[in-house]
Design brief:
Oligomer: single chain
Number of strands: 23
Low-confidence stretches: none
Distance between the termini: 56 Å
Structural class: alpha/beta
């Protein structure tokens, strides 16, 4: 439905009332103190200057009374709040809610994959599909990171064979100083997912030789097809310069192999779409996230796999996902993510409300409850078919969830390692991020950010708040662009060369 507003602000269109029971409205544009507003039949005068995206009270709210947005509680009033007052962190208290969960009572079937529409992708031996065709150089540890980067840089300016998107490095600061156990296991799962990713034609695992994370782990029983994987260490290959030469010899073989691979028509149900947001603002839950949710539903209906992430950013909204779970087991797995993450934060005296960031708050998000209620909209309305641990391979069709932090580069790394061959990323503040081997589609939540950062943004969902397009129209635009990008069209992040890769470190440094 098109928002009933014009481009020029009026008393009727300057603030948005998102749900009939909400006692707040959201400023669509900056509102000066003294401005008279008419919101769903309510006349209110702004008593403060209200920045765009921020909230104002529609009626008197008593101390301790719940403040509601999206028809959900986002906190309690710290003090009496008059109609027309700005509502934000100064007068809105965060409160951890005791939610009631509505568990599924039936076991829903998984969606049936459909043959159309299609895109042009690279069919892999294991049945997965690549949207890109890269050669990867993956560091097993920080000690090999610089050499991995030098190897990838040595191809800059060199013409690459047809059908090869590039030679890219995966440097990072992990792999040694770890205690064996969950932390090493998670790193290994992450790097294995990168090495065997469908967007990677072939890869080299590169170590120093004496680190905790030995390359033999990847070259033994856990290794993918050896035709697509090589391994070496600096200690056995002549140090940095000798290893560069040795690695280039292996990559020459891989380039010939990759060049022979061709894009072929593939059903869209083979797409595994990571759903992420970063630099969120108050418009995220009004424009870009619901539009991406519409795209997510279109993909899930085809039997494709949209994957929501960021456990910290479903906290306070998890009840909305629980009642959409395919069965009780999936619902409990989701709640386990919340419980385990809470224990993880407690180890460091942290709180879910340490997120949102200062930028999120400047954009109008007062606390994690408000942020999460907008963030889960990326997942649309489809049944939740499965829940995955960080970097665990995604295998089921339909809408899924992955346990990741809210920190963007770490979240994207988990989604990538799980097998997402595309990522859609919504942003209100203008996060500029990408991934070495996966196209990242950037969706701006407001037109101001889109205009200021046009070279970074692929879609302007701000036109929804401007009253120019509907959520469904922008969602369809994202879906159609997704098919084009999957077929080879470059995203803004790819053109600019963004290649962020940050594994999640969960344990102590030794």
């Amino acid at each position: 439905m098109l928002l009933d507003i014009a481009k020029l602000p009026t008393a009727e269109n300057s603030a948005l009332h998102l749900h009939p029971q909400d006692n707040v409205a959201v400023a669509r544009v900056p509102i000066a103190a003294g401005t008279e507003l008419r919101v769903d039949g309510i006349t209110v005068v702004a008593l403060d200057a209200i920045p765009a995206g921020h909230k104002l009270a529609l009626r008197a709210i008593q101390p301790g009374e719940a403040v509601e947005r999206y028809g959900q509680v986002i906190g309690r009033a710290r003090q009496a709040i008059e109609p027309g007052r700005h509502i934000h962190t100064h007068n809105l208290a965060f409160e951890e809610l005791h939610l009631t969960y509505e568990f599924p009572t039936v076991d829903l079937p998984l969606p049936t994959p459909k043959d159309a529409p299609t895109f042009l992708g690279y069919q892999r031996e294991d049945g997965r599909v690549g949207t890109r065709n890269y050669i990867g150089v993956v560091a097993a540890s920080n000690c090999a990171a610089h050499t991995a980067e030098l190897i990838a840089r040595s191809y800059e300016g060199e013409p690459l064979p047809l059908n090869v998107d590039g030679v890219v490095a995966f440097p990072h600061g992990e792999g040694c100083g770890h205690a064996f156990g969950p932390d090493v296991n998670q790193l290994r799962r992450t790097l294995a997912g990168v090495l065997a990713h469908p967007n990677v034609s072939a890869a080299v695992i590169l170590g120093l030789g004496c680190e905790v994370n030995q390359i033999d782990h990847y070259l033994g029983s856990a290794a993918p097809n050896s035709r697509r994987l090589a391994g070496m260490t600096l200690q056995a290959s002549g140090g940095t310069t000798g290893t560069i030469d040795a690695c280039r010899r292996e990559i020459a073989r891989f380039l010939d192999q990759a060049s022979a691979e061709r894009r072929v028509p593939i059903p869209a149900c083979k797409l595994v779409l990571g759903l992420n947001c970063g630099g969120s603002d108050s418009f995220s839950g009004i424009t870009a996230n619901p539009a991406l949710g519409y795209c997510s539903d279109l993909l899930a209906e085809l039997g494709g796999t949209p994957v929501l992430a960021e456990t910290t950013e479903i906290f306070g909204a998890e009840h909305l996902l629980v009642k959409r779970a395919r069965n009780r087991q999936v619902a409990e797995k989701l709640l386990d993510c919340i419980r385990n993450y809470k224990q993880y934060l407690n180890r460091f005296a942290g709180s879910f409300d340490d997120n949102p960031s200062p930028g999120n708050k400047e954009g109008g998000l007062s606390n994690i409850l408000e942020k999460s209620l907008g963030a889960v909209a990326k997942g649309g309305t489809s049944p939740l078919t499965e829940v995955y641990d960080y970097a665990e391979r995604v295998t089921t069709p339909g809408f899924a969830f992955m346990n990741t932090p809210g920190y963007d580069p770490v979240s994207l790394t988990g989604l990538a390692a799980g097998g997402c061959n595309l990522i859609a990323f919504t942003t209100g503040r203008g996060s500029a991020i990408g991934f070495p081997t996966i196209p990242v589609i950037k969706i701006a939540t407001n037109s101001n950010t889109y205009r200021r950062m046009t070279a970074n943004m692929d879609v302007n969902a701000g036109t929804i708040a401007d009253g120019e397009r509907t959520v469904q129209q922008v969602g369809r635009e994202i879906f159609d662009l997704m098919l084009e990008v999957a077929s080879g069209r470059h995203t803004c992040a790819e053109v600019l060369g963004h290649k962020e890769f940050v594994p999640w470190r969960i344990g102590p440094v030794l």
